[in-house]
Amino acid sequence: MQANSRPVSSNQHHLHPRLAEVVRRHLQTTHRGAMAAYNIQAYRRLSTALSATPRPIVLDSFCGTGHSTAALAKRHPDHLIVGVDKSAKRLAKHSRSVNDNYLLLQADCEDIWTLLVGDGLRPDYHYMLYPNPWPKAAHLQRRIHGHPSFPLLLALGGTLELRSNWQIYVEEFGCAMHLAGHRGCVLRVANTGSDLSLFEQKYRNSGHELWSYTARVMP
Length: 219
Ligand SMILES: C[S@@+](CC[C@H](N)C(=O)[O-])C[C@H]1O[C@@H](n2cnc3c(N)ncnc32)[C@H](O)[C@@H]1O
Fold this sequence. Notes:
This protein has eight helices and seven strands, in the order ααβαβαβαβαβαβαβ. With 219 residues, the protein is of the alpha/beta class. It has a single domain (25-217), classed as Vaccinia Virus protein VP39 (Rossmann fold). It has a seven-stranded mixed beta sheet, with helices on both faces. Helix 1 (19-27) packs across helix 7 (167-179) and helix 5 packs across helix 6. The protein is globular and about 50 Å long. The protein starts with 18 loop residues before the first helix and ends with a strand. S-adenosylmethionine is lined by residues 62-64, 68, 84-87, 90, 108-110, 129-132, 197-200.
């Protein structure tokens, strides 16, 4: 990946002034988007894999090419790692490693989250690595914590880890979690010499500061 990515530029320099209002509204409502058929089909692949070998789940939402999904499969050998991304183009770039305890689904995360919650399936770990930042202030509701599906994340529970190269995004996420009654931790992502995802690699090689939010969420 290239090392010339520009830092996030935004017309928003602090937490969004409407963050609390938007999050509180979503916490009081149930997200009911129309469920696309391709998401139901993708979810069937997950159900089939779990029926064949029942295992606890690790979710890698917004997984891009699935580079992180393969890395997480090594980190969690006794789990089924489920990478979800809506982009067929990104997923097609995945080159499968020898490890086969993971699955890549082309689907919208919100619908997969809805189906998991509906079936009472809770991931042990839920990674959200470098989601699109939507840095324009007008796009708050496209960010994970500003989206109506945010309560589904809480219903899924598990050990959550969100990473971003935009500090404000991570801090906003932490505030939204706090408003929902969950305390977590915002930290710089340490440089261990091995990047978990391709965007992490690109941002680090471009000299960006990387941030993470982690929390243990009991649904
Ligand atoms: C910036 S990339 C990060 C990819 C990967 N996590 C990484 O760190 O290399 C964000 C990804 O989120 C995906 N995405 C955005 N909205 C999505 C949604 N609602 N459901 C599934 N994937 C989505 C995009 O297709 C894109 O691959």
